[in-house]
Specification:
By secondary structure, the chain is of the alpha/beta class. It is 27% helix and 27% strand. The longest helix has 20 residues.
Length: 638
């Protein structure tokens, strides 16, 4: 529905041109149940004269039988169209409304507040540029307020209006408003939001919705409608890196072949050189075709058909980029995942992954951590339930072309679909490739080959190089065994290097913390150093917790046949008794998050080359067993 304008009667073409050139703002209302989201939208439309008279008459009639606003017209009924919604007085599905003012066009998504319908909120928020988060002035910031704020941040919505509603029920108290603002600011420190706009209002009575009203004279900011008309949501848009996922190949006749899609980032002109991915074949843009004629330039959000100078093979799901502006590509990515299914997610189960560049088979290999929405803390998890949000590693059988979601919402997002039911079970926002395991160097490098052959080194050192990884819980005895093994090899005339976890943390990994992702990167760095040592004929001994089985497998792949995994399987009770620094006690208190064996999972090796237990075996016995494995594998000579 459009605003009233005299141009409609005077010059319909001028009105249509004016209306067409106005920019569009997509926003959603969200927050906890019964905070007044539907009422707010109804009030926006009512006070802006955007409700037809017959619709308003129906609302007035329905308000007497189904309304919950007393003698007032229950404007929430305008949005709660489902019978179940009207009966319960809640929003279940996402409802959309379109309207315009003299300054801007709007599409509103009214999302449900109940936790069980959080997945519907995700759907509504996925295309929005701004979020209006309602807070009941009586109750303050609730769990669902935090959940919706966090999801809005995850989905790249940086512009937020915190609308403190129902101020009429707290006597329009400025002190109460300030309390809620302070509470929300404290919570939102960890979220990537542009400075939130805090607004007191009464959606039921209309205060500060379209007009300021007589009851909030102490508030000097603009009303909601004025803010929506003037807020700049295009700040930070990527106009540099061109991206257009191909949605359709158009071939209406033998003389025309174009590639249709919506530009998600960057700008394009005729004459620009582009590359089609994944093939990597390039060409030059000939025309930018639209229904209204050819364009000289097109930018983000514009649906166009691009024709090329050359006949190259491009299909639906391919990605068009400018030459020299290629996205990331990997089979393995790390992403924030919102689980949207009643059936719990378990690692290793195969799903279909739908992204901007097509469909592939994928599975969630690792849950790095689950986010506690109430505390924003990271928690260990082996599976995900409905509405859980987690940081996960995902592996796809088809190479994915992507940008980080923070840079491009179109190429950085995906959904997971159940292979049997065809139901969407999760939405994902890609952070990047899985650590450095799959990340290629940014420049073309050539590996240098030594003139000294491996055979020469083997004869000189009397050994075959290998990497011994000692893995196990903290205080299991890994460092003690590594030190003893190093001494025994030295006494036998062998050449080795010891990569102790603590020493590494003070050097090449001093920039890393202890999240699952950072532990993965730590093991990758140690493995790379060990491989360099092995290439020089030197044995490497690494003592690390290395809690993730999949990451240890990556280390085995990197090292190759010279990898030897020793599981130091000391019971956790013994590890606790040995712990001189009190790390386990600190983890129990919650002072150390993501601590393997306590607040995070340690995945026991199932295919280790040797298992030792320092609680029942002496250091000498353990080292002797390790040496036997090395001898049997042919790494020791003489």
């Amino acid at each position: 529905m459009s605003h009233q304008s005299e141009l409609i009667a005077q010059d319909i073409n001028a009105y249509l041109e004016e209306h067409e050139n106005k920019d569009l703002l997509r926003f959603l209302t969200c927050g906890s149940v019964d905070d007044g989201k539907s009422t707010l939208i109804g009030r926006l439309l009512h006070d802006s004269k955007m409700i037809y008279e017959d619709t308003l008459a129906t609302l007035e009639a329905d308000s007497t039988t189904q309304g919950s606003a007393g003698e007032e017209v229950d404007l929430a009924l305008l949005m709660d169209g489902l019978k179940a919604e009207r009966e319960q007085g809640i929003t279940i599905d996402v409802a959309y409304r379109y309207f315009s003012t003299a300054k801007r066009k709007f599409i509103i998504a009214d999302t449900p507040g109940h936790e069980q319908y959080t997945r519907n909120m995700v759907t509504g928020a996925s295309t929005c540029q701004l979020a209006v988060i309602l807070v009941d002035a009586r109750h303050g910031v609730q769990d669902q307020t935090r959940r919706h704020s966090f999801i809005a941040s995850l989905l790249g919505i940086r512009n937020v209006v915190v609308a403190v509603n129902k101020m009429d029920l707290v006597d329009y108290s400025a002190d109460r408003f300030d309390e809620i603002c302070a509470e929300y600011r404290e919570f939102a420190k960890s979220l990537e939001l542009v400075d939130p706009y805090f607004l007191p209002m009464s959606a039921l009575l209309g205060d500060n919705v379209v007009d300021k009203g007589p009851n909030l004279g102490w508030f000097d900011g603009p009303a909601l409608m004025e803010h929506l008309e003037t807020v700049d949501v295009e700040v930070g848009a990527d106009l540099e890196n061109f991206r257009m996922p191909v949605q359709m190949v158009q071939r209406p006749n033998l003389d025309f072949r174009g590639f249709a899609g919506t530009i998600s980032a960057g700008v394009i002109h005729p004459g620009d050189e582009i590359v089609a991915l994944p093939s990597g074949v390039g060409s030059t843009v000939s025309r930018i075709v639209t229904f209204d004629g050819d364009l000289d330039v097109a930018g983000p959000g514009r649906a166009v058909t691009i024709t090329l100078e050359d006949e190259i093979d491009i299909s639906r799901g391919d990605l068009l980029v400018k030459k020299g502006q290629k996205p990331l590509r990997s089979h393995d990515v790390e992403a924030m995942v919102v689980w949207m299914s009643d059936v719990a997610m378990e690692t290793g189960r195969s799903y279909m992954l739908q992204s901007a560049n097509g469909l592939s088979n994928a599975d969630i290999t690792t849950i790095r951590h689950r986010v506690n929405i109430n505390t924003m803390e990271q928690e260990a998890a082996d599976s995900l339930d409905l509405n859980d949000i987690a940081f996960c590693s995902i592996s796809s059988d088809r190479e994915l072309l992507f940008d980080p979601y923070s840079s491009n919402r179109a190429t950085g997002s995906f959904i997971l679909v159940d292979r049997l039911t065809n139901a969407t079970v999760a939405a994902g926002m890609i952070r990047g490739a899985s650590s450095g395991w799959d990340r290629a160097p940014e420049t073309t490098l050539i590996r240098q080959v030594s003139e000294i052959t491996p055979k020469e080194r083997s004869i000189r050192f009397g050994q075959q190089p290998c990497t011994v990884l000692l893995t196990g819980l903290t205080a299991a005895g890994k460092s003690t065994l590594a030190t003893a093994l190093e001494r025994e090899l030295f006494d036998r005339g062998k050449v080795s290097i010891r990569l102790d976890g603590e020493n590494v943390r003070m050097g090449i990994s001093r920039d890393l913390g202890f999240t699952a992702q950072e532990r993965s990167e730590n093991l990758r760095r140690v493995s790379e150093v060990a491989r360099l040592a092995n290439n020089q004929g030197i044995m490497a001994i690494a003592a690390l917790v290395a809690p993730n089985a999949a990451v240890r497998s990556r280390a085995r792949e990197l090292i190759g046949d010279g990898f030897v995994e020793i599981f130091v399987d000391t019971p956790i009770e013994v590890c606790r008794q040995r712990d001189p620094e009190g790390l386990y006690d600190a983890a129990d208190r919650g002072d150390i998050p993501m601590f393997p064996g306590v607040s995070a999972t340690y995945q026991r090796p199932s295919d280790a080359d040797l298992r030792v237990d320092t609680s029942v075996q002496s250091v000498e016995e353990c080292v002797s067993a390790i040496l036997k494995v090395l001898g049997d594998r042919g790494f020791l000579r003489g």
